[in-house]
Amino acid sequence: MNQNQTHSEQPSALTIPLAIVVAGLLIAGAIYFGGSKSPNMAVTNPNGTQNAENVDVPAVSDKDHILGDKNAAVVLVEYSDFECPFCKVFNTTVHRLMDTYGSKLAVVYRQFPIAQLHSKAPKEAEASECAAEQGGNTAFFKFADKVFETTNSNDSLDPAQLPIIAGQIGLDVAKFNSCLSSGKYTNKIAADVAAAAKAGAQGTPYSILITKDGKKATVSGAQPFEVVKAQIDGLLK
């Protein structure tokens, strides 16, 4: 398998109140009946990047986790799973793109934990929301980067590491633990999963590039830096 891959699923449309575990069961069923050999199989998307003017993706707002200016020339909206190995790889690519384009590019991280594949990912997603609750976007991306740095993917991260990571980035660990144990962000995570499905995601990572004038293109899988850069350059012309 190469880096141009996704962890695959084909979820049914979900509603916000549904719990993540229900989403996971629907995903698993879709994979099984869709013909994949295994729910843990990563599959290559042959298209990689493509125009997608009609992709139904929620508008970026101040409620999002945004790296950069939401009014940038191009916004990359990424649906991601903290225990997906390809998301771990793509996280490095995203930061390289930010370094390359500066103020011309912004990144929006949205949650897409595939619970059937990675049972620990939903709680890690909730943990990142608890980090954001304390420290906003800065804390969110510090926490996300540290999780990707620490985990070896595929449910390898010990949950006991989550409060340790929170402390490492300067959060109040007691408040963090209280937030995480409350389950207050479960529905938010479910809403992101539902939005990802509606936007056409069939695996992670799944990204949509959006220009200020509304042009869109999708990026399926952990496409190399050069591939995504070429797509962004084309949108900027």
Describe, in plain words, how this protein is organized in 3D:
The protein is built from seven helices and nine strands. The protein has 237 residues and is of the alpha+beta class. It has a single domain, classed as Glutaredoxin, CATH 3.40.30.10. A six-stranded mixed β-sheet has the order 3-9-8-5-6-4. Strands 2-1-7 form a three-stranded antiparallel β-sheet. The longest helix is centred in the middle third of the chain and has 30 residues, at 121-150. Mean pLDDT is 84; it is low at 9-47.
Number of strands: 9
Strand percentage lies at: 15-25%
Largest sheet: 6 strands, mixed
Any idea how many domains?
1
Percent range of helical residues: 40-55%
Number of contiguous helices: 7
Helix/strand order, N-terminal first: EHEEEEHEHHHHEEEH
Class of secondary structure makeup: alpha+beta
The stretches of 5 or more residues where confidence is low (pLDDT under 50) are 9-47
In the sheet with the most strands, the strands line up as 3-9-8-5-6-4
Q: Which fold name is given in CATH as the topology?
A: Glutaredoxin
Q: What's the CATH architecture?
A: 3-Layer(aba) Sandwich
Q: Ends: how far apart?
A: 33 Å
The whole-number mean of residue pLDDT values reads 84
Radius of gyration: 17 Å
CATH superfamily: Glutaredoxin
Report the CATH C-level class: Alpha Beta
Tell me, what's the shape?
globular
